[in-house]
Structure formats: structure tokens, C-alpha cells
Design goal:
The chain is an alpha/beta fold. 28% of the residues lie in helices and 24% in strands. Helix 5 packs parallel to helix 6 (162-169) and helix 7 (209-219) packs across helix 10 (330-337).
Length: 380
């Protein structure tokens, strides 16, 4: 049985505010991204079903849609088949896990005796990635009118990160309403009744606007006093990719415009909310750190530093049931859903042959300063 929670709709977006300073290549892409169809969100029910702790409905269909470059049938094969040689070189860790899963096909089986319907509202990226937890998982919960009717299922690993607990607190969900699953991909959990919420990961970049707005209301981002005229650059330590290569000049520019540098790992989620909610501008390199824009108040500004190889035509091998023309515009889409003023800074990369999100970047300092100047003029 399928219950529609949100009908298919159209997302209308505003071009980047520095649109006129961009090259024709980027102007063409953003012109085509001004309007896009958002897939429907639905709740699908299963009876006497088995599933694994990363959201795979065993030998039935894929519930998590994590590997959005593959069709549903091939996703199941990818999970439980031997990897190809190219997979071993591109993703050695996940490939070794696949080999292990393949050799141990005869998994453990645990029966869950619960009268309530179990609910899967996440995908296997959502419990390792802050962006997907906030934007793909929690936004789906906002469409459920009666959460108390379900027992929420979560992998045990979610206990390690405070942003999971904070997210559940926004919905007043206590631990009695959660069933934590042991961290073993081979274990099959059998239940009487299971419900799964579809996720937007099928769309490479299109978050659900209404879901984002609902989540911001639950967080209370517009309940505080007006934001101050200050900016924050959200940074991270110890990363091996998406590092800024001309960092000396870049940080000098931040200092010139009195932009504070904030390391997300030094703060709890609640501390991040307070700091970002009081600012008028958030700057960051494309990545999960930019999901913190959810905590900015309406009409504040967001500058995204984007590796130039990340935004473009969706690769042909992304075979899914919602195949968008372009991919890589996650934070442009999210900024519009948050009612923010979005500025786009395409950045050169150290090696165009690298997998795009793994590239290190050279910030276009001229375009960056133009954008900062435009924003500062609105503060006066």
C-alpha cells in the first residue's frame, strides 16, 4: 500500500545574486535551474518484511536509494555482488565491504516483535552525512501528521553524533520511540509491519522546498532577534580534499571584510545554531558544512565556493527514476528553499581528472570580493 504525503510540485528558484558577473556557461545552467519538478513524497507499507540496517528491503526492492547512479535493480546487485576492478580502485573501502557481504550471504536473522509499524525515513547516506540527515531524512518526517503511530528505526551508529539527537529533539522524539539496529550489514530484521518514506536522493540536487521550510519552523530559525551584520566562514580541519590552495590570499580577504572563521567540529549542533542564527552571511566550500545554512534567518546571504567540475550535466551512468539534466546544485537548491540570497563562486581545481568532490580548489578572489562588496552594501 502507498500513501501520498506530498504531491509532485514545481520548485521556483532565484538566480544567484552575482549572476551578471558569471561566465556564460554558468548563466546557462542557472537559467535552466530556475524551475524544476520535485518528485512526490510517499509512504509505502510492507507486511511481514525483512530489511537490513542500511535500509535495504531484502530481496524486494531498495528503500534507501543511496547509490543514486544505479537503477533500483542494479543497486541491489551492487550491495550483494562482487565489485568490479574499477570499483576497487575508486572506492576500496566500500568494495571490501561488498566482498565481505557477498562471501557471507547467509546472514543472521532477527525477528522484531512490535505491535507498532516500524518506520524507515533515512537512507544509508543519512546516518554518515549531516546534509543528507537534515535535508533528505528529517524533512520527510515533517510530512507525517502522527509520528507517535510509528516506531522509528535508526542504525546504532547514529548515537555517536550529536546532530542526530538534536534533529530528533526538534520533533520531540524520545528514545522510547526509537529502535536502534545493531551495526551489521548482514543481519536481516524481520517485522510484521514496515513503512518507508521515499527520499529525494533520487533527484541530484532538488530538495523539497516545503519540507525544508517545515523543518526551519521546527528549529525556530526566525524566532530570535534580527541577525547582526557579520559573516562566518565555516571551515573544517584535517580534510584531504576540497581544501583552498590559495588560502593565504583568501583568508586575507576574509580578514579585510571582518569575516569570522568557524570550525564546525569544535561546536555542538546547538552552539552552531546560536552562532549561525545570529549572523547575516555564511560562506563555505561545497559540502555538508553548508547544510548549516538551515540555521540562517530568512533573507540572509550564502556564498558557496564550488569546485568548477562539480556543477554540470548529470553523468549518463546515473540511471534512476528521477534523472535531472544537471547535478551538483544541492546548496543552490537548499539556499532557495531557505529564502536566502545565494552567491555562486566557481573555483578552479588542482586536477580536473579527479572525482569532482575530491578536488582541491583555487578561489576566484576577484569574484569573491565583488560578492562580499555587494553583500556589505546591503548592510549599510
Amino acid at each position: 500500500m502507498i500513501k501520498i504525503l506530498k504531491d509532485e510540485s514545481i520548485a521556483e528558484r532565484t538566480k544567484p545574486l552575482n549572476f551578471e558577473s558569471l561566465s556564460n556557461k554558468w548563466k546557462l545552467i542557472f537559467s535552466e535551474l530556475e524551475s524544476e519538478t520535485q518528485p512526490q513524497i510517499y509512504l509505502k507499507y510492507y507486511l511481514n518484511q525483512a530489511f537490513t540496517q542500511d535500509g535495504v528491503i531484502w530481496e524486494a526492492e531498495i528503500a534507501d536509494n543511496s547509490f543514486h547512479e544505479y537503477s533500483e535493480k542494479r543497486m541491489l546487485n551492487r550491495k550483494y555482488s562482487m565489485p568490479m576492478i574499477r570499483d576497487l580502485t575508486k572506492a576500496p573501502k566500500s568494495s571490501l565491504k561488498r566482498i565481505y557481504s557477498y562471501l557471507k550471504k547467509d546472514s543472521n536473522s532477527i525477528s522484531i516483535e512490535q505491535d507498532k509499524t516500524l518506520l524507515i525515513f533515512w537512507d544509508s547516506r543519512s546516518f554518515v552525512n549531516k546534509y543528507h540527515w537534515l535535508v533528505d531524512a528529517l524533512t520527510r518526517l515533517t510530512f507525517l501528521p502522527k509520528l507517535e503511530e510509528f516506531l522509528l528505526v535508526l542504525p546504532e551508529i547514529t548515537k555517536k553524533f550529536d546532530f542526530y539527537e538534536s534533529g530528533l529533539n526538534w520533533f520531540n522524539i524520545n528514545k522510547d520511540q526509537i529502535l536502534f539496529l545493531e551495526p551489521d550489514l548482514r543481519t536481516k530484521f524481520n517485522c510484521k509491519s514496515l513503512a518507508v518514506i521515499s527520499t529525494s536522493i533520487l533527484a541530484p540536487g532538488c530538495c523539497n522546498v516545503e519540507g525544508v521550510k517545515n523543518l526551519r519552523i521546527k528549529i525556530g530559525v526566525n524566532n530570535s532577534t534580527n541577525a547582526e551584520n557579520k559573516g562566518i566562514f565555516i571551515n573544517r580541519r584535517g580534510s584531504s580534499f576540497r581544501n583552498i590552495l590559495n588560502k593565504s590570499e583568501f583568508f586575507s580577504l576574509l580578514e579585510k571584510y571582518q569575516i569570522d572563521v568557524l570550525y564546525a567540529e569544535d561546536h555542538s549542533t546547538e552552539e552552531l545554531i546560536k552562532k549561525i542564527n545570529s549572523a547575516n552571511l555564511l560562506i563555505g566550500v561545497m559540502g555538508a558544512g553548508l547544510s548549516n545554512m538551515l540555521f540562517l534567518q530568512d533573507n540572509c546571504s550564502l556564498i558557496e565556493l564550488m569546485p568548477e567540475t562539480c556543477l554540470g550535466f548529470t553523468p549518463d551512468y546515473w540511471e534512476n527514476q528521477y534523472h535531472a539534466k544537471y547535478s551538483g546544485y544541492y546548496y543552490y537548491s537548499l539556499a532557495n528553499a531557505c529564502s536566502l540570497n545565494y552567491y555562486f563562486i566557481p573555483c578552479g581545481v588542482d586536477d580536473a581528472r579527479k572525482y569532482p568532490p575530491k578536488a582541491n580548489i583555487y578561489v576566484n578572489l576577484q569574484l569573491m570580493e565583488e560578492s562580499l562588496s555587494m553583500i556589505k552594501n546591503t548592510w549599510n
